[in-house]
Design goal:
This protein is α/β, with parallel strands linked by helices and about 325 residues long. It has a domain of about 200 residues. It is about 45% helix and about 10% strand. A six-stranded mixed β-sheet has the order 4-3-5-2-1-6, sandwiched between helices. The radius of gyration is 19 Å and the shape is globular.
């Protein structure tokens, strides 16, 4: 089963978990005139045109956790940025650098003194937590005070960091830093509190499932991550959809919580933005674009012109 890790990295919450200051990768990683070799892919950027054709939304699919080797980005990202008057991110700019938000996450994630993680998960899951902690030279007691959802996020952050993939190298952070440097306006579609409550509101059973599956999935993390990066670089929504949703029918409530409901909320806001007369760069997890209930199909179902964008007006046919 491969389900939860792709969902988790569809959320920029790990940026807050690790307390990372938004910053760009190395300066040479992405430049405005960057050109990729053909095998590096077209990128995951789609352009939505307003009814009168006068302004655009650039739907720019992100991976919130990347390695230095995953750069440069496809030229479509820089072209979208240069043609946009503002940015819309999943979280407001600066969310990852607030100590207050880190404290809030810790308060939601920590059990009171009269209970602990090993009392809320089964023996098999607790044994798996201890076994994982041993592989990273961690004392299991340091994890025992946290709720399962938080431990799952911690494990995810540690394992991706071991691959060299970090939130401060994610696409969102690069363009957030660039917008700050250029004094280009940027806003968030959600708040950190909203994303925290998605996890904090999970039942004990859902949290244990999240933790158990995370522990299982990290065993094959490197291969799965490379496959995801390849599909993202190619703008291959079919492969991404298969990775994200192959087990989705078993977890309809989580699907709605993490993806579908958020897509529906965002589309309302994004349609309003199309009426502002501005071109806007929208940076959200690429998983939000895939499938029947993804943003690309939702816009098309409403009659909008949506095309796979490659950094110039001669867009490719829709994927």
């Amino acid at each position: 089963m491969r389900l939860f890790l792709p969902w988790i990295i569809c959320l920029p919450l790990l940026l807050v978990l690790t307390g990372c200051e938004p910053s760009s990768p190395k300066a040479e990683a992405v430049v405005p005139d960057a050109v990729l070799a053909p095998e590096d892919g077209a990128g995951s950027v789609w352009v939505v045109k307003s009814a009168n054709g006068k302004n655009k939304l650039y739907l720019c699919g992100t991976i919130h956790i990347l390695r230095e080797e995953d750069y440069p980005l496809a030229p479509a990202y820089e072209a979208a940025y240069l043609d946009s008057q503002m940015l819309l991110l999943e979280l407001p700019p600066g969310s990852g650098s607030s100590t207050d938000l880190v404290s809030r996450m810790s308060s939601l994630a920590t059990y009171s003194n009269d209970t602990a993680l090993d009392r809320h998960i089964d023996e098999k899951s607790w044994a798996a937590v201890k076994a994982w902690a041993a592989t990273r030279n961690l004392d299991p007691s340091s994890l025992n005070r946290f709720r399962p959802w938080y431990v799952a996020l911690m494990i995810t952050a540690v394992e991706y960091a071991a691959l060299g993939a970090k939130p401060d190298q994610g696409v969102d952070n690069y363009f957030e830093a660039l917008a700050a440097q250029d004094k280009k306006p940027a806003e968030g579609l959600e708040t950190v509190e909203f994303q925290l409550q998605m996890f904090a509101g999970l039942t004990d059973h859902q949290q244990q499932e999240l933790l158990s599956q995370t522990l299982e999935e990290v065993k094959n993390l490197s291969g799965e991550f490379n496959k995801m990066i390849r599909a993202w670089k190619d703008g291959d929504l079919d492969t991404l959809h298969g990775m994200l949703f192959r087990e989705a029918e078993k977890f309809p409530e989580l699907m709605d919580l993490f993806l579908n409901n958020r897509n529906r909320n965002w589309i309302t806001r994004l349609e309003q933005e199309l009426l502002t007369g501005k071109n806007i760069m929208v940076l959200v997890g690429t998983g939000h674009f895939a499938g029947e209930k993804g943003l690309v199909n939702l816009f098309r179902s409403k009659g909008y012109d949506v095309t796979h964008y490659q950094g110039h007006e001669s867009e490719t046919p829709p994927h």
